[in-house]
Amino acid sequence: MAAAQTRAEVVVDLGDLRHNVALLDRMASAAAVMAVVKADGYGHGAVAVARAAVEGGAAWLGSCSLAEALVLRDAGITAPVLAWLDPAGTDYAPGVDAGVDLSVSSLRRLTEVRAGARAAKATARVHLKIDTGLSRNGCPKDDWEALVRAAASAPEVEVVAVWSHLAVADEPGHPATDLQAERFDDAYRVALAHGLDPLRHLANSAATLTRPDLHFDLVRPGIAVYGLNPVHTEVDLRPVMTFRSAVALVKRVPAGEAVSYGLTWTTKSATTLALVPVGYADGVPRALSNRAHVWLAGKRRPVVGRVCMDQVVVDCGDDEVAEGDEVVMFGSGAHGGPTAREWADLVGTIDYEIVTGMCRPRVQRTYV
Predict the structure, then answer these.
(1) Which of the residues 92, 129, 141, 261 is marked catalytic?
(2) Residues 169 and 258 in one domain
(3) Cβ(138)–Cβ(130) under 8 Å?
């Protein structure tokens, strides 16, 4: 990888992404793979990621909103795309016209999708979503039969699938997953009883990796596509994103000098400090102050003092570093370098939040 040329750069390795999708496709056995590319591809760039995912073997793509799905269509991507979350009152005609599959969780949503289909003069492809225990989006059990009946008899729609989402699949062995699977099976049987023959999809990344019994017709890996493993199993997933910068300034300072706002860190002896021009405006959590490490000049080195809006300071001891040297803020973890999961663990969050947080105007995105 060439040296960083910008102050804040995310490098996305599409080869590793294709590898991850191909691996997940093999693990999914007979099920097809829906690569989830919502939130601008988890911060990696939805269009480039979607193309690479399809090249890697994904048969479907998943987006959150209809707007996200239409971005893929506008880019010429023709693979089946599911959009599952938009506010009430959304005009679904553009989605129906573009051949986007639409999730339906209520009679009101079904009515709106039917109206969109009539406006587009085309049949809407819908996936009926049942709430099996996450208590977010999805039709409640008591309303499910009415929704299925209405969808089965609606001439404007084709029911393509029944689906749901798991709450604790990232905790293998948790009894709630089996309970959700039972409720999902009950909902599927209601659909069959009303003459439907839908696909089934339930498994997220964690269930794709650990619950082959829940793969059904389609699996929906999200974070695993990007090489991050929610269940910490020994699987050859390769982190796709590297966040890097370059040293802007090097200075030698004596013992007893404090560093950065609040003067929270003081040199114990004479040392070399490297200034790196990225900060919390570029996605570096301020909570990493005095806690994070970077990879610089072949070694892990600590961030000292508070993370600022535009910069951090790195203690290099007596080692020689130079202005322009590459600084890996997080990446694959090769040779012991920092990772997105390490950042997440340090600040008490998940690596999903770290990588999606890199969708920032000041951070350049580069593909390799």
Answers:
(1) 261
(2) no
(3) yes
* 261 part of the active site: yes
Asked if residue 295 and residue 250 are part of one domain, the reply reads yes
Residue 156 belongs to what domain range?
Answer: 14-226
Q: Is residue 231 in a domain?
A: no
* Residue 29 scores a pLDDT above 90: no
- Number of domains forming the structure of the chain: 2
pLDDT in tens, 75-111: 999 999 999 999 999 999 999 999 999 999 999 999 9
The catalytic position among 38, 92, 226, 352 is 38
What pLDDT, on the 0 to 100 scale, is given for residue 138? 97
Q: Could you tell me if 312 and 352 are in contact, meaning their C-beta atoms sit under 8 angstroms apart? A: no
- 48 with 94, same domain: the answer is yes
Q: Which residue has the tokens 């200034």?
A: 275
Whether 83 and 165 share a structural domain: yes
CA distance 33 to 46: 16
Whether residue 207 sits in one domain with residue 250: no
Note the helical H segments in the chain.
14-27, 38-42, 46-56, 66-74, 93-97, 107-120, 141-153, 175-193, 205-210, 340-347, 351-356
Answer yes or no: pTM beyond 0.70.
Answer: yes
Q: Is 38 a catalytic site residue?
A: yes
In the chain, what percentage of residues exceed pLDDT 70?
Answer: 99
**pLDDT tier for residue 336 given thresholds of 50, 70 and 90:** very high
Report the pLDDT value the prediction gives residue 366, as an integer from 0 to 100.
Answer: 97
The average confidence (pLDDT) of the chain is 97
Let me know whether 63 and 200 are in one domain. Answer: yes
Q: Are 343 and 285 in contact (CB under 8 A)?
A: yes
Could you tell me the CATH number of the domain that includes residue 203?
A: 3.20.20.10
215 and 301 together in one domain: no
CA 7 to chain CA centroid, Å, is 24
